[in-house]
Amino acid sequence: MQIYVCVKHVPDTAANIKIVGENGFDDAGCKFIANPYDEYAVEQAVQLVEKNGGEVIVVTVGKAVAAATIRAAMAMGAHRGILITVDSQFLDSQTTAQALKVAIEQDGKPDIIFTGKGAVDSEGFQTLYRLAAGMNLPVVNEINKMELGEGKATVGHEIGGGAREVLDVSLPCVLGTTKGLNEPRYPKFPDIMKAKKKEIKQITIADLGISVDGAQSELEKLEKTPDRSGAKMLEGDVRQAVEELVNILKEEEKVI
Amino acid sequence: MATIGILIETEDGNVKDTNFGVLTAARGQGDGTIIALMMDGSADGAKDALGKYGAQKVVQLSADGADLSTSHDLKARTLAAAIEHYSLDALLGLASAQGRDIFARLAAFMNLPLASDCMAVDMAAKTVKKSHFSGKAFATIKMLGKVMLCAIRPNAIDAVEAPADAAMESFAASVQDPGLVKVVEVKKEAADEVDLTEAGVIVTGGRPIASADNYKILDECAKLLGGAIGASRAAVDAGFAPHAMQVGQTGKTVSPRLYIGCGLSGSVQHFAGMKTSKVIVAINTDKDAPIFEKCDYGIIGDLFDVVPVLTEVLKEKL
């Protein structure tokens, strides 16, 4: 099987984000990681290839430093990487999807393209749908169950309200992964060393014939979410504190 | 004058309350026409509820010769046809699990910009406000397409009534399902559960809850408030709660009017999923827990002592 995994290099979820100018952030002063949801995608791809044979190719759109995230995926077992470099901190999802499509089509014939259900930096939750539409492939997102069948995959996901949906998807397809699908492995030291020798092909987005000027949406402004200034502590014994809380919630906040 | 479509979501045939905030958001955009679009449930039954919040037209959508419930792609294509037919300037809806999926399919199919999980919409400026960096920042995004597609975070916008007399209509789209994804089955696992992402009140238990069974204590309290129960990542990883209950990074993003965190430390990852809640209450034994720095009201105490008393007091006072 030829399985592609689209992975994004994102600021660590625990990192402090320092906003710079109107719509940028200090990326040099911030630790980056592989997008957490993408780890389920890499793990699923590696498990499928371990069982059925084939190769796992990681594709990333980002700055040159994003190679670190490709190496992390390689340490988990991915075989090769493609890094499409851009200069900007943010790229709209349609342009990203086009870049992924062209890079994948130039490289080979996917049986499955995996990616995380969304990226924790821009939180757009749509790139995989645009990739699928561009390639005329079916797509299902937020899967936490998967079984490979003959020419199809049977996948499951939650649809809210305690309900689950099971779907049959024809291969080739695009699948977005979330927690519960598998347990991403922690690479061992020899795997990390081996990953350093694997091939990463680096190309610029312009090399793929894609212009970054045709964006459909633009990030105009970034501002820090206002933090609460700290709790009003309710004192006294449990009963007193709780009664005061209920009064406040009912009379002042009017939320109950 | 803008024409704004609203994709209405129903549950068991009833219009979900969270739709009313979306209708309110649409009304705030000048003298527009508001058209409620329904793909499930009955438009007749929903007419009064939707009219109360300002829908001027309620349209029952269907696909020619096909059952919409069998395919999400078919739904997206039907919506695309409705956007063309009614010359919509914008389509708003809920960023629920289903809403996020259908809006993304639609945006990809029509090659239009989409803002998912928005907190505010400004159609005159063609901008939306949404979360960035797991809730650590707000982004203002300019939408450059011909039609604005916005899926709004449930409960992010307060619902305000503005009665209108809604006209009824139906529209059958001539669309074809590509047929590459088929819904095999939908299993409702817990019938009486309030959807976590759309709950108005959430009571969450962290690792100190110590067992799956102990969530009953929180559930009793949450039910009194018409709410749902959530769990922290630590509690989920310890096997005390299913992943479906997890709030925060790698879990669900919620925005209830009241969030009661019991035994939560207040990690950045947890706050990523609930910091836009209107009022946050924390109950923790540790007076130095970071959560007390970031919430509105705090009680120092063991959740096993405090929550039962809270339930008792609520029974008396509600």
List keywords for this structure.
heterodimer, A: 256 residues, alpha/beta, Rossmann fold, globular, B: 318 residues, 2 domains, 9-stranded mixed beta sheet, 5-stranded parallel beta sheet
Q: What's the arrangement of secondary structure elements?
A:
The complex is a heterodimer of chains A (256) and B (318).
Chain A: E1 2-6, E2 9-11, E3 19-20, E4 24-25, E5 32-34, H1 36-52, E6 55-62, H2 67-75, E7 80-85, H3 93-107, E8 112-116, H4 127-135, E9 139-143, E10 145-148, E11 152-160, E12 163-170, E13 173-177, H5 189-196, E14 200-204, E15 217-224, E16 232-233, H6 238-252
Parallel strand pairs in A: 1-6, 1-8, 6-7, 7-14, 8-13, 9-13
Antiparallel strand pairs in A: 2-5, 3-4, 10-11, 11-12
Helix pairs in contact in A: 2-5, 3-4
Chain B: E1 3-8, E2 10-11, E3 14-15, H1 19-27, E4 33-38, H2 43-52, E5 57-63, H3 72-85, E6 90-94, H4 97-110, E7 114-122, E8 127-132, E9 137-143, E10 148-152, E11 167-173, E12 181-188, E13 201-205, H5 215-224, E14 228-231, H6 233-237, E15 258-262, H7 268-272, E16 279-284, E17 297-300, H8 303-317
Parallel strand pairs in B: 1-4, 1-6, 4-5, 5-11, 6-10, 7-10, 13-14, 13-15, 15-16, 16-17
Antiparallel strand pairs in B: 2-3, 7-8, 8-9
Helix pairs in contact in B: 3-4, 5-8
Q: Average pLDDT of chain B, to the nearest integer?
A: 94
Instruction: Report the largest inter-chain contact.
Output: A-B, 84 and 94 residues
Q: Trace the largest sheet of chain B across and list its strands.
A: 9-8-7-10-6-1-4-5-11
| Ends distance of chain B | 44 Å
Overall 3D geometry of chain B?
elongated
Outline the biggest β-sheet of chain B. Answer: 9 strands, mixed
Number of strands of chain B: 17
Mean residue pLDDT of chain A: 95
